[in-house]
Automatic annotation (TrEMBL):
Domain of life: Bacteria
Pfam families: GerE
Boundaries of every HTH luxR-type domain copy: 135-200
Naturally occurring in which organism (per UniProt): Iodobacter fluviatilis
Record-given protein name: Helix-turn-helix transcriptional regulator
Length: 200
């Protein structure tokens, strides 16, 4: 897999190379990106000449490469705009090397990386869009308490909200979720939500 970064910030370039232990091709301008295809490209949103994320021209770049947008001032709104522009991910430009490597692994494997707040928003949106055929069948072998936790998690509630709603600790919520994921053969909340909607 080829890795490139579009930035003029040499300290950012050094941070990413050192943090991820990857070799990156340094690109100085957006037109240089049009020469690449099939690789992972990190784009520094601090570059002054970039089009707005709402500009349809991004699709030219994000369909031929797996793009990760980097922001020095990340926000949920910009994150959503980045994903809408076709990016495979969005993160803080100076995220830790470990975090950057984890994100790059997801993107290089063909996945999409979304932060927790965006993932929660997507789950809540899905919960409103789809109505399951049988509201109880998907829960199969779960105990009553696990059913309560699963229902709240599938509707987009965060661990803290579930704990408050059920009068238990967040640690207990995490324990229940690990059992739920195992019993239902799902890996995460998104798969749990899809299962609850009869999609999986």
């Amino acid at each position: 897999m080829n890795f490139s970064i579009l930035t003029t910030d040499t300290s950012l370039f050094a941070h990413i190379q050192q943090g991820t232990q990857q070799e990156f091709l340094l690109l100085g301008s957006l037109p240089a990106l049009s020469q690449l295809s099939g690789g992972v490209v990190l784009i520094d949103l601090a570059l002054p000449s970039l089009p707005a994320l709402s500009d349809a021209s991004w699709l030219v770049y994000t369909t031929s490469n797996q793009v990760l947008f980097l922001s020095s001032t990340p926000s949920d709104e910009e994150h959503l705009a980045a994903l809408t522009a076709g990016a495979r991910g969005y993160c803080h430009a100076y995220a830790t090397g470990e975090s950057l490597q984890a994100i790059l692994n997801v993107i290089a494997a063909g996945g999409v990386w979304a932060g927790p707040a965006i993932l929660q928003a997507l789950i809540r949106s899905m919960h409103k869009l789809f109505v399951p055929k049988d509201t109880q069948a998907w829960m199969g072998p779960l105990t009553d308490r696990e059913r309560e936790v699963a229902t709240l998690a599938a509707s987009g509630s965060a661990n803290k909200e579930i704990a408050r709603e059920l009068g238990i600790t967040e640690r207990t919520v995490k324990f229940h979720l690990s059992l739920i994921f195992e019993k239902l053969s799902v890996n995460d909340r998104l798969q749990l939500t899809l299962l609850s909607k009869g999609i999986r």
